[in-house]
Specification:
single chain, 309 residues, mainly alpha, 0% strand
Length: 309
């Protein structure tokens, strides 16, 4: 009886896994996807530039409006909205990560006959063969990732309402993220698979952590979000070096013109983030040293009082 129940449970689990795999990598809409200016929403240059311009202008307008209407130090109560946005972004990022991972495995299995003499599966993840077109499973999830960048921009609005500050790095980073994901699709750029996998993995952890802290649970004893972003930028830097080596020593990679521009933008983001990271680290050390000095002064004053008594 127990054997029959275990077999039925195993069959149910396998059926669930098969269903998930179908909807993440084998659905006809995923397999037959093709990036096209006429068939995909938001796939034109005009839409991209207009969207980024509207995002920047609305962020500036909201910041100035709140500065004029509300007194300094006053914030707008948002209730559970930031936690809900973080939860949604965490779930979307985890779905993209799982879908792209399964789709990459399927694409490697079905197309390896074409490039296996010149590349390994890991090299394919870094370097698409020349002539690769933006169609199929991998580019479907790249398109979903591109669309998710616009939902990602909503965090700027929440930050302005909650903190009354408009951070240049946040606006720049969100704009560049949308622009680069568009380039990945438009030019079938190499390296995008690993970039999306790394980014969605980190985003699912970071947004999940924000939900964790938003509901009142204990936060980490180190700057979790900043360190996750630092690891992501470091992984992207290593992968960019790998793409460059493969391009020159292994027959060339697709979309290298867009890759050069992408690398430049990633370099700018990395420098800005390093500047922020170093300033945060130095300020943290200064605060700790000041706290330690204050504690020492308090201990000395207490000791002197005891001696006088």
């Amino acid at each position: 009886m127990s054997t029959t129940a275990a077999g039925a449970a195993a069959s149910s689990i396998m059926a669930v896994i098969h269903t998930i795999k179908f909807y993440l990598s084998e659905h006809p809409a995923i397999v037959g996807f093709r990036w096209s200016n006429t068939q995909c929403w938001g796939s034109t240059w005009l839409f991209l530039f207009n969207s980024i311009a509207i995002y920047i202008l609305l962020s500036l307008f909201l910041h100035l409006l709140l500065s004029l209407l509300l007194p300094r130090g006053t914030t707008v109560p948002l209730g559970p909205l930031p936690a809900l946005h973080s939860l949604l972004m965490s779930l979307i990022s985890a779905t993209i990560f799982a879908g792209l991972l399964l789709s990459s495995v399927a694409e490697i299995r079905e197309t390896s006959w074409f490039w296996r003499r010149s590349k390994t599966p890991f090299q394919w993840l870094l370097c698409f063969p020349l002539g690769t077109r933006p169609s199929g499973r991998v580019f479907f999830w790249s398109y979903v990732f591109y669309l998710s960048r616009f939902l990602h921009m909503f965090r700027t609005t929440l930050s302005v309402l909650r903190r009354r500050k408009l951070a240049f790095f946040q606006v720049f980073n969100h704009s560049i993220s949308a622009f680069m994901s568009f380039l990945w699709l438009e030019f079938s750029q190499s390296f995008q698979v690993l970039a999306i996998l790394f980014t969605t993995l980190v985003d699912s952890l970071v947004y999940g952590y924000r939900v964790w802290t938003a509901i009142g649970l204990r936060s980490a004893c180190f700057p979790f979000v900043v360190n996750c972003k630092m690891v992501l930028l470091g992984c992207n830097l290593v992968c960019h070096v790998g793409v460059l080596l493969l391009h020159f020593f292994n027959g060339g990679c697709n979309g290298m013109g867009a890759w050069v521009f992408n690398s430049f933008l990633n370099g700018v983001v990395l420098l800005l983030f390093l500047n922020f990271y170093i300033r945060m680290y130095i300020q943290g050390k200064k605060k700790k040293s000041c706290a330690a000095a204050n504690n020492n002064n308090n201990e000395l004053s207490d000791t002197s009082k005891l001696k006088l008594n």
